[in-house]
């Protein structure tokens, strides 16, 4: 059986898709695989920063040369690719997986570490190669799940994508698909190819170590395998390290979790950008939860750890007496501006107030915040469902006036 584009579309019409993937976006998982296993996040970093060796460059040149030849038969292309990878110490074998035959399968202790899937030329053939490779991965790993209840069973693909199991398989593209037929004078493209291939080899070796050394020690079933892999944070001054456990996923659409260090509850958040400085400033003034930890982790992520806001608070959106908090909210935002910062997303959804109506608000979500005149809006600003000021658009400067206008909309 192959998974053709049409079969893929039909399959994704089901309420529960066969596996999580970005086609369509609604089938995607909230938690990306780069937060489930550090091998994938490190791979993404390596695709940008890895320094290729002479051997990496030689392999990239040889693979580019051999794969730039026209092939009428995908078996011949796959045979040559396996030969090239073999010279790179990555021994792929054309094998059977539950009735399917792969173009190249690299295994370690019966686990598939990587799968190659080939087509004679791009877009030719009865199946899209990435989805077909994902189907092979599902077929091979399904039988391992009961024997390895606490593992995500990760697998790196060259192409470049990764796959992992939680409640079902997750497939995620990790790096751009690169042409192997670049001009000999295009040093930037050749460097990018060598860097990604070197990163791929590094990830494959890391996966072999995972199956060799880590997997045998994973015995406990993590609840629903529903939480990211980071389980510790460093204090802001770097003096202490704290291990924590996850308790719940606070919002299914966001990377925000409740956790605990011993008996103390914390809030753990994963973001691509964040203003630690703005958060600390608001916390010092008494209208933001105490920031306990903030650091960059591989894959372009930041882990943000703060005090958990207890049940005495609720969202300003749900407050029956919203207007009574206007003065306190305005004074707090003005204090942020006086310190030289802007927030960028002042909305009732990002403000917590006490249920009994007493003073003591909490401003949240400093993802867009930063120094006024320096920080810009991210891409994908939602100005359809959320009313925003003129100029509050992708890659434009966040202005003090925008925060004030958002306050006016709110009240």
TrEMBL record:
InterPro entries: Kinase-like_dom_sf, Tyr_kinase_AS
Any one GO molecular function term: protein kinase activity
Protein name per its UniProtKB record: Non-specific serine/threonine protein kinase
């Amino acid at each position: 059986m192959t998974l053709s584009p049409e079969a893929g579309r039909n399959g994704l019409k089901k309420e529960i898709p066969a596996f999580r993937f970005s086609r369509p976006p609604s089938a995607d998982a909230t938690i990306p695989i780069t937060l489930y296993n550090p091998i994938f996040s490190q791979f993404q970093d390596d695709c940008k920063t890895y320094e290729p060796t002479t051997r990496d460059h030689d392999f990239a040149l040889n693979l580019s040369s051999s794969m730039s030849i026209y092939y009428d038969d995908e078996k011949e292309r796959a045979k040559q690719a396996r030969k090239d990878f073999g010279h790179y110490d990555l021994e792929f074998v054309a094998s059977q997986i539950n009735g399917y035959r792969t173009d190249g399968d690299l295994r370690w202790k019966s686990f598939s570490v990587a799968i190659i899937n080939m087509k004679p030329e791009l877009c030719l053939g009865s199946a899209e190669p990435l989805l077909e490779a994902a189907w092979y991965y599902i077929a091979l790993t399904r039988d391992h799940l009961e024997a390895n209840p606490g593992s995500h069973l990760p697998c790196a693909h060259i192409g470049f994508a990764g796959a992992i199991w939680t409640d079902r398989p997750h497939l995620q593209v990790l790096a751009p698909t690169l042409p192997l037929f670049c001009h000999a004078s295009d040093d930037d493209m050749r460097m990018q190819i060598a860097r990604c291939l070197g990163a791929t080899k590094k990830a494959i070796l890391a996966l072999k170590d995972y199956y060799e050394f880590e997997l045998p020690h994973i015995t406990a079933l993590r609840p629903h395998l529903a939480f990211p892999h980071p389980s510790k944070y460093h204090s802001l001054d770097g003096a202490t390290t704290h291990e924590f456990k996850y308790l719940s996923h606070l919002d299914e659409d966001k990377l925000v979790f409740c956790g605990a260090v011993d008996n103390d509850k914390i809030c753990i958040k994963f973001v691509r950008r964040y203003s630690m400085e703005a958060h600390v400033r608001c916390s010092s003034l008494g209208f933001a939860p105490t920031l306990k930890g903030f650091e960059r982790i591989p894959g372009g992520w930041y882990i943000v750890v703060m005090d958990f806001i207890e049940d005495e608070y609720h969202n300003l959106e749900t407050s029956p007496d919203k207007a009574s908090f206007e003065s306190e909210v305005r004074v707090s935002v003005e204090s942020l501006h006086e310190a030289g910062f802007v927030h960028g997303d002042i909305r009732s959804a990002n403000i917590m107030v006490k249920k009994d109506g007493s003073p003591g608000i909490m401003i949240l979500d400093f993802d867009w915040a930063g120094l006024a005149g320096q920080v810009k809006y991210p891409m994908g600003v939602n100005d359809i469902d959320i009313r925003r000021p003129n100029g509050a658009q992708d890659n434009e400067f966040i202005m003090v006036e925008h925060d004030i206008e958002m306050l006016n909309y709110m009240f």
